[in-house]
Input
Amino acid sequence: MSASALPNQPSPPSPTPQQTAEARAAFTASLLSAGTSTVESDLKTRAADLHANTAAIDKQEQALLKETKNLGKESDKWQKLVDGGARGVKETGDVQNWAEMLERDLCVLEDTMAMVEEEERNAHKGVDGGLANGRR
Output
C-alpha cells in the first residue's frame, strides 16, 4: 500500500533547509568521527610499535657493537698465535739451514781427515821408498 492509500495518516512535515543542513552536518560528523577514531587508533598503535621497535633496535645495536669489539679482541689473539707459529716455522727453517751448513762443513772435514789419514798410511808404507825417491 502506498502512502496515498492511507487517508487517516497525516503526511510528515517537510524539513526546512536549515534542518536538512544540520542533519547533513551531524551525519557527516558522525561518519568522520567513526572513521577518524579507527584510523587514529591504527596510527597510534603503529606509532607505539615504531617506538618499541626503535628501542629494540637500539638495544640490538649496542649488543652488536659489544660483540664486534669482543670479536676484534679474539681476532687479535688469533693473529698473535699465527704470528708466533710463523716465527716458529721460520726458526725451524733457520735451524734446518744451519744444520745443513754444519753437515757440509763436517763432510769437508771428514774428507780432509780421510785424505790426511791416507797420506799418513802411504807415508808409513813407503818410508824407505819415499826416501829413496827424494821424498821427505
User: Anything to note?
Assistant: The chain has a mean pLDDT of 83. Residues 17-125 form the longest helix (109 residues). The helical segments are 17-125, 127-132.
